[in-house]
Amino acid sequence: MDLEVITIDRASEIQKKEVINISDGRRLGFVYDVEVDLATGKIGSIIVPGETKMFGLFGKYEDYVIPWKEIKKIGDDIILVDLDKKEHIYEK
Q1: Angle at 38 between CA 36 and CA 43, to 5 degrees
Q2: What tens digit of pLDDT does each residue of 42-74 get?
Q3: Residue 44 contacts by C-beta under 8 Å, 6 or more apart in sequence?
């Protein structure tokens, strides 16, 4: 999948993929939402839910908001990103 050509009409394809951070090898989870630039129709970032605390009983950590420029490769099942986790946390 060409990284430069993903638009809103193909966003549903992204939501079925798992995100892996290549800088530390961690599985971040599956994409559950995208941020779209309405002027261009292109995806600006992907959002992956944060990890849950204590079996999900005490809420969860903040979501990961991953800018499009940090996506290195999109495969059939996986999206590879290269990021420092602390820089891409979304505060609710």
Answers
A1: 25
A2: 888 999 988 766 555 665 667 889 999 999 999
A3: 34, 35, 36, 37, 67, 68
